[in-house]
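To fix ideas, we reproduce below a protein record of this kind.
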Amino acid sequence: MRLVWAAARRERTTFACGEVLDAERFLGEELGPDEYRAQQSIRTFFNTSAPERHYVKTALSVLNMGFLRERAAVGYRATHYARASPKGSPYRKMLAALWRESPVPRLGPGERLATMASLLHTDARGRSRAGELIRESGLEPAVWPRRYLVPLLHAFHAHDLVFMPTGRTSSSCCATECPSGSS
């Protein structure tokens, strides 16, 4: 699918980023007629035309997404809703999009991306994604889950990182996109 980008008045929008970025340059590099594929998180899109570009996360409804610690985000302030709604109302939130770093440039030879949620997938013939990965690995079925889970548990216990089924990680200090799955 293609994402439709709408123009908005600068005085009603906010651009935020986790590191020093030039907003004009960033948006110029990311916005365009590219094709995207929805991921398990239905409002997160992978750029299939230019996989090295960032993922794009959009609002599920018009006014439900605030700013997280991502690569960059842009939002529109709906001041007419804010003026008419009580403090804390979901109508005070913005129409927004944010960009998450693509893990594609970090892939090594023979590696591919998969989300944890994809391990639950079963195809039309009843074959599970996890079973296919286990067969491809050549490992014993009892060994593969340990090889997969031990690094995740280490990341949690040693670094306070937790992994989400959609491929995100989060901790008490930051949230970054990390590839998860098997190579």
